[in-house]
Amino acid sequence: MAFLSLGHLHQRPLILGKGGFGRQLADWLAEDGWGNAEFLDDNAPGCAGKLLDYADPALLKPGRPAFVALGNNQLRLTLLQKLAAAGYETPVYISQAASVSPSAVLEPGCVILPQAYVGAGAHLGMGCILNAGAIVDHDATLGRGVHVAPGGIVKAGAQVAEGSKVDSGEIIRSPWERD
After folding, report:
1. Cys-Cys crosslink for 154: which of 31, 133, 172, 174, Cβ 3.0 to 4.6 Å?
2. How confident is the model at residue 68 (pLDDT cuts 50, 70, 90)?
3. Which residues touch 131 (CB under 8 Å, ≥6 apart)?
């Protein structure tokens, strides 16, 4: 599993996107001890600025944790890369109410929400989102920026292409189950 730095506990996290997912992520981060988040969003009120204001020196503190909570998978990947290049930490967030195998590999910017499950040997590319109740079984591979919606299932050994979405109730079958 990816190494998680404890340094994030000393800096207020920055979340790009204040829609429903961003607000939920902020709640879970606060509950898990990360502190109260600050938001950037182009349309929502009460934010510190627009999405591209992440480079503002008032916001950018070396190693500050930043998350991208946007449903547009390609934009999420682009912004994660820009955040990392600017000096932000793009950590993996695993809810304390999720279950992730120690042998799973989670690349930077992945978000694993409550009741999600990640099995042994699974590999999640940069910026993947596993929403509440999502399942990624053993040895499955998710490309960069994949979103598994609540209740989506990726079965053992299955592969999901970069930027894809596995919708609620959708099942991505194991390779040996296909016709």
Report:
1. 172
2. very high
3. 113, 116, 147, 148, 149, 150, 152
State the pTM of this model.
Answer: 0.91
Minimal CA–CA distance to 44: which of 59, 22, 63, 27? 22
In angstroms, the CA 23 to CA 19 distance is 6
Contact between residue 55 and residue 61 where contact means Cβ atoms under 8 Å apart:
no
CA-based nearest residue to 76, from 105, 98, 46, 108: 108
Q: Specify which residues 66 forms β-bridges with.
A: 14
pLDDT of residue 2: 44
The DSSP secondary structure of 16-41, one letter per residue, reads E--SHHHHHHHHHHHHTTS---EEE-
